[in-house]
Specification:
Layout lengths: L1 E10 L2 E11 L3 E6 L6 H8 L7 E6 L10 H4 E4 L11 H12 L4 H10 L14 H13 L5 E5 L7 H16 L3 E5 L3 H7 L2 E6 L2 E7 H8 L3 E5 L5 H13 L3 E4 L5 E4 L3 H10 L6 E6 L2 H9 L97 E2 L4
Parallel strand pairs: 3-7, 3-8, 5-6, 6-7, 13-14
Antiparallel strand pairs: 1-2, 1-4, 8-9, 10-12, 10-13, 11-12
Helix pairs in contact: 3-4, 4-5, 8-11
The protein binds adenosine-5'-triphosphate.
Length: 399
């Protein structure tokens, strides 16, 4: 188990991590998420004793890393795959790590086989591709057969086979009762790999909960409704009826409608009352990506904008229409619908940068509700408005 208590790290006047407390438990894959620059790598470095906290502390199995007996056999980590001596072969790199940690040399060939590098084990690592370097870093993490593993962006540069392999590796390590802590920006991958999430923004804890709870706390369930493709007037008629009945409608890329605010039977009844045939009516949960975007929108330091291509706009060919806007695509500021209990507009624009101890101006002391890092309640949610369905609600990541 990894335990951080009040962990804080300042670099000069820059606070990279602030008052972070969490536990990473064995037997599960814990995803570590946060926008660029939010402090994930800094936290991992403090866990591994590579950086000293300015305040607070972090332990692995009850000890700070530098007091951990036989640390390289208990903890394996991939932090920066490029941090290898490029002139050494992959095998020699791993052999030198093994010798330093009292690990038998035969283990080197084992891990080279596990990561699929046995055929290039004699090649200098400076000639390795990004993905080969990642595989070598994962081999180094596995070398001591450790109970605690940390991976910072392990799938960076891996091909699809490699991504699938890492996913299954993480799950298998956790299933063996190990502690697996993995940072990633790939939400679809995290949704498939992680059981639990720790989310930080500007160095502070934003969420510490299961993936399922994270999605339901940060987005509303919705219905996908599809009318016959060849009869757009049916789609329009149903959209109007749903809106009039208090639902919210957004078009999806494939022509379906995404509806929030009305239970499925009500949508079905509306379609029947308005003589609209349905090709699909299915319950859905927002994707982890959508829920994550909603939660972290106020904690993003580096935000992309639409390329205006000033003076470079190409004329569309005659008769061509610009593409129809689609929820979440090419629309900065679009986020998943909020969970029902939060009320308000279903598609709120991004908030201003949150007030806090650094970055934006401090929040007034008497306004605790303004704390953007307040953790959502851990208690189970009340049932969403959508009616129970024979099929369990599907996450968009699973589609
Ligand atoms: N050695 C350092 N000196 C000064 N500032 C640093 C140092 N290391 C990190 N920082 C700053 O601390 C903040 C957190 O950086 P960190 O690398 O931990 O973020 P991250 O969440 O891992 O980001 P990313 O997702 O982009 O990898 C950033 O503002 C970064 O510039």
């Amino acid at each position: 188990m990894i335990e951080a208590v009040g962990l804080t790290k300042r670099y000069g006047d820059k606070t990279a991590v602030y008052n972070l407390s969490f536990q990473v438990r064995p037997g599960a894959v814990t995803g570590f998420l946060g926008p660029n620059g939010s402090g994930k790598s800094t936290t991992m470095r403090m866990i591994l004793g590579l950086d000293n906290p300015t305040a607070g502390h972090v332990t692995i199995c009850g000890h700070p890393y530098d007091k951990l007996p036989n640390a390289p056999r208990q903890v394996g980590a991939l932090l920066d795959a490029k941090a290898v001596h490029g002139g050494r072969s992959a095998r020699n790199h791993l052999l030198s790590l093994a010798q330093l940690s009292g690990i038998p040399a035969r283990r080197v060939d084992e891990v080279l086989g596990v990561v699929g590098l046995h055929e290039v084990a004699g090649r200098r690592s400076k000639g390795f591709s990004l993905g080969m370097g990642q595989r070598l870093g994962i081999a180094a993490a596995l070398l001591g057969d450790p109970q605690v593993l940390l991976f910072d962006e392990p799938v960076n540069g891996l091909d699809p086979e490699g991504i699938l392999w890492v996913r299954n590796l993480m799950k298998a390590l956790a299933a063996e009762g190990r502690t697996v802590f993995v940072s990633s920006h790939l939400m679809s991958e995290m949704a498939l790999t992680a059981d639990h999430l720790i989310v930080i923004g500007r160095g502070q804890l934003m969420a510490d909960m299961s993936v399922r709870d994270f999605i339901s706390h940060n987005s509303a369930d919705f219905a996908r409704v599809r009318t016959p493709d060849s009869e757009p007037q049916q789609r329009e008629k149903l959209s109007a009826a749903i809106t009039e009945a208090g639902g919210h409608v957004l078009p999806e890329q494939d022509g379906a409608l995404r509806v929030t605010g009305l239970p499925l039977p009500r949508i079905s009844d509306l379609a029947h009352d308005h003589d609209v045939r349905l090709w699909e009516l299915s319950p859905h949960q927002a994707s982890l990506e959508e829920a994550y975007m909603r939660m972290t929108q106020g904690a993003v330091d580096y935000r992309s904008t639409v390329d205006q291509k000033e003076g470079l706009q190409q004329q569309l060919p005659p008769g061509t229409q610009p593409p129809m806007p689609v929820p979440g695509q090419g629309q900065p500021g679009w986020y998943a619908p909020p969970p029902p209990q939060q009320g308000g507009q279903p598609f709120a624009p991004p908030q201003a940068a949150p007030a806090g101890p650094y970055g934006a101006p401090p929040a007034p002391a008497a306004a605790p509700a303004a704390n953007p890092y307040a953790q959502p309640p851990q208690a189970p949610q009340s049932a969403p408005q959508s009616a129970p369905s024979a099929e369990p609600t599907k996450s968009e990541d699973a589609r």
